[in-house]
Amino acid sequence: MAIVFQKPKALSDVPLHYCPGCTHGIVHRLVAEVIDELGIEGSTIGVAPVGCAVFAYNYFNCDMQEAAHGRAPAVATGIKRANPENIVFTYQGDGDLAAIGTAETVHAAARGENITIIFINNAIYGMTGGQMAPTTLVGQVTQTSPYGRKVEAQGYPIRMSEMLSTLEGPSYIKRCSVDSIKNINDTKRAIKKAFQNQIDKKGFSLVEVLSTCPTNWGLSPVEALDWLRENMIPHYPLGTYKDIDAEQKA
Amino acid sequence: MDKVLMKGNEAIAEAAIRAGCRHFFGYPITPQTEISAYMARRMPKIGGTFLQAESEVAAINMVYGAAGAGVRAMTSSSSPGISLKSEGISYIAGADLPCVIVNIVRAGPGLGGIQPAQSDYFQAVKGGGHGDYRMIVVAPSSIQEIVDSTFLAFDLADKYRMPVMLMGDGMLGQMMEPVAFPDTTGVKLPEKEWATTGTKKMRKPNIINSLYIQPDELEALIKNRWKKYIEIEQNEVRFEAEGTEDAEIILVAYGATARIVKAAIKKARENGIKAGLIRPITLWPFPSDVISAAAKKVKAILCVEMSMGQMVEDVRLSAAGACPVHFYGRTGGVVPIPADVYDEIRRYV
Ligand SMILES: Cc1ncc(C[n+]2csc(CCOP(=O)(O)OP(=O)(O)O)c2C)c(N)n1
Ligand code: SF4
Fold first, then answer.
1. Do the chains contact at A107 and B206, CB–CB below 8 Å?
2. Tens of pLDDT along A30-62?
3. Where are the domains of chain A?
4. Nearest-CA distance from B90 to chain A in Å?
5. Nearest to A81 by CA among B52, B278, B266
6. How far apart, in whole angstroms, are the C-alpha atoms of residue A168 and residue A204?
7. DSSP B158-169
8. Which of B190, B229, B184 is nearest to B72 (CA)?
C-alpha cells in the first residue's frame, strides 16, 4: 500500500501542546517538511522562543536551543558564527520578535546574518493569556486593551515585514498566511526558499506567517480563520517584500 | 619565556585568544574598550569572530548561542553593561553553558562614573541575574595574574560547564606591566558532546535549555548542580596570604585595592605593627576557611574595598565573630591611598 500521508522525519514523535485549531501546529509541520525535503536535519539547529512555541525544542528532531524572550536572533547569530556550515533557524511569536526582541531582529537583519526566521504573527500574546501585542490591530480587544486598542493611548500595530524590507541586509522577506490550503502551500514554498537562501549563503531571510490564536481571540477555530482573513490580511497584506533574486533579475 | 609589556585590557584579549577563544561578542563601554579593539584587530586575522553587537543583551545571548554550539566564547563589558547581561548570565547558568564574561568595573549606581570601583561585588558573587545559581568569579591583581586568570577562567568554565567572570577595574585595565604567556602548543580543547553542532543523523538531538515546568524536576536539577558548586567550593578556592603567621591584624582586599593595601602593610611593618594580608583571588568560591582560621588568631580584621562595603559581609560571615571585622572603603571612583589605609590599621592595633 502506498503511504499518502505521514509525519515528517524532522518532527519528533511527541504530542504537540498547542490548543485545538491553533495554527502553530501547521507551521511546525511545514518547517519540518522543508527540513526533510532539503535533507538538512543533521546540520540544522533550531532556536525556540519564549511564547507558545517555547517547547519547539521538543518538537523538532534536530539540535535545538531555547532562547530568552526576544533573544532568538542573537542566539542564532552565536550558533551560526560558531559553525557557519550549519543551518540555523528561529521560530518566534510577535511579542518575542516585534516587542521585546525588536533590536535583535532588526540588527540580525541589518547584518544580513545568514539565518532563517519563522515569524508567527497572531496579533496577540498567546502564552501569557491574551495581552496586547505590537501587532494587535486598532480596536482589537485583548486583556490589556479591554476597550479595544486605541491609537491615542497604545499607538499603531507594527508591520515588521515592511519595516525590515527597507534594510539592505535581508535577502528574502515574505508575508504569508495559513488560513487556506492555497495559502498554506504558499507558506511552505516561502519557508523552503528561506532555508534554501541560507544554504546558498544569500543571507538573512524571514517568513512572516499570519496565524490564529482561537483561545485568546475567543473564537472557534473556523471563526478564527475568518477573523484572520477579514481583519488581519487587509492590515497585513500578503506578499513578497524583499527578494534579492527577483531584484537581480529585474 | 619572553616577557612583553602589556596593558591589562589587552592582556585579557591576547590571553583569551591563546586560550582558544575565537568568538568574541561585545558592545563598547569605558573602561574596557581596548579588549574589543584588540579582538577586532586580531580575530579576522586568525579566522575568529569579532562581532560588535547591538547591545550587551544581544552580546551575551550571542555568547549563549556560540557556547551552546561548542566553542570557547567570551564577552566583556563594564558595570552598566553587566547589568544588561545579567538576564543572559542566568540563562547560561541555567543551561549549563561554559563561557567567560569580563567585567572591568566602574563606579555606580546608574551611569555612575568611569573611574575604578569594586561596587559590583554583590552583583558578581551573589548573582546579578535571577534564580538559584552560582558563577565563578576570578579577581586578578596584576597583569601577569590577569593572563593566568584568563586561561584559568576558560578552563574552569569548560570543566564545570558554567559561566566564569573575570573581574577587574579601570586601574588594572589601563595599567602596563611585563607579562609572559604560557606555552600552549599541543594543548587540546575539551570535546563537548552535548553541544548543538548538528546531529549528522548519527545521534539524538542535543537540546540547550533552562526551562523545566515540573517543580520536582527543576528542584532535582538544581540540587544536582549544587553538588558541582560544593565541589568547586572545596577545590577551586584561590587566594594569596602574606605575613599572616605572626599577624596581629589581617587586611582583606582583592584586585587593585590589594596592591594599595600591600604598600600600607609594608609601612605598618616598618613601624612595628604586625599586619598581614589575605587576598581572595576567587571571590566565589570565597576563601572562607583561611579567613575563619585567621580570625581566631588576630586582634582584628580590616577589609578594604573600593565600595561602601560588599565583600566585608563575606569576611564577617567567615570570621563568625571570632574577632572584630572593620571596614575602610572609598567609592564613586575614588581610589584609596596607602597612607589612609595605614591610618586605619593604626586605629585597630
Ligand atoms: C523577560 C520576560 N518577560 C516576559 C515574559 C513572559 N512572557 C512569556 S511568553 C510572552 C509573550 C509571548 O507572546 P508571542 O511572542 O506573541 O508568542 P505567542 O505566545 O503568541 O505564540 C511573555 C510576555 C518572559 N518569559 N520573559
Ligand atoms: S494560546 Fe493561542 S497561540 Fe497559544 S497555543 Fe493556544 S491558540 Fe495557539
1. no
2. 999 999 999 999 999 999 999 999 999 999 999
3. 24-249
4. 10
5. B52
6. 10
7. HHHTSEEEEEEE
8. B190
| Residues lower than pLDDT 50 in chain B | none
Residue to probe by mutation, ligand 1, list A120, A128, A143, A210, most atoms within 8 Å of CB: A128
Chain A residues within 8 A of B65 when measuring between CB atoms: 47, 65, 67, 74-80, 82
Contact between chains at A64 and B200 (C-beta distance less than 8 A) = no
Residues in chain B within 8 Å Cβ distance of A92:
none
Q: What is the DSSP string of A148-193?
A: ---HHHH-----HHHHHTTSSS-SEEEEEE-SSHHHHHHHHHHHHH
CATH match of A24-249 with 3.40.50.300 = no
**Which phi and psi (to 5°) does residue B294 adopt?**
-65, -40
B189: left (phi over 0), alpha (psi -120 to 50) or beta: beta
Query: Which DSSP state fits A99?
Result: I
* Alpha helix segments (H runs only) across A39-180: 56-59, 72-82, 94-95, 102-110, 151-154, 160-164
Sheet containing B99-105: order of strands? B49-52, B23-26, B73-77, B99-105, B163-169, B136-138, B282-284
Interval between CA A106 and ligand 2 midpoint (Å): 25
Amino acid at B70: G
pLDDT of residue A34: 98
- Alpha-carbon span A33 to B209, nearest angstrom: 24
Contact A66 B202 (CB under 8 A): no
Residues 6+ apart with CB under 8 A from A152: none
Among A201, A27, A56, which Cα is nearest to A114's?
Answer: A201
Amino acid at position B56, single letter: E
Residue of A40, A71, A113 for testing the chain B interface, max B β-carbons within 10 Å? A71
Pairwise CA distance, residues A69 & B210, whole Å: 12
Cis peptide before B109 (omega within 30 of 0): yes
Sign of CA dihedral B292, B298, B300, B306: negative
Give per-residue burial for A194-219: e unless 16+ CB within 10 Å, then b.
bbbbbeeebbbbbbbbbbbbbbbbeb
Pairing of strands A205-210, A87-93: unpaired
CB A61 within 8 Å of CB A12: yes
CB contact under 8 A, B69 and A79: yes
| B259-307: pLDDT as tens digits | 999 999 999 999 999 999 999 999 999 999 999 999 999 999 999 999 9
Q: CB contact, 8 Å: A47 with chain B?
A: yes
* Pocket, ligand 1, Cβ cutoff 6 A: A 50-53, 69, 93-96, 120, 122, 124-128, 133
Residue B7 and residue B174 in contact, taking contact as beta carbons nearer than 8 Å: yes
pLDDT at A249: 77
C-alpha cell at position A130: 491574551
Task: Judge whether A172 and A244 are in contact, CB under 8 Å.
Answer: yes
Q: Which of B93, B21, B88 is nearest to B53 (CA)?
A: B88
Q: Tell if the CB–CB gap between A82 and B211 is shorter than 8 Å.
A: no
Distance CA A49, CA A71 (A): 8
Residue A42 burial (10 A CB sphere; 0-12, 13-18, 19+): middle
Q: Which domains does chain B have, with CATH numbers?
A: 4-198+223-235 (3.40.50.970), 240-347 (3.40.50.920)
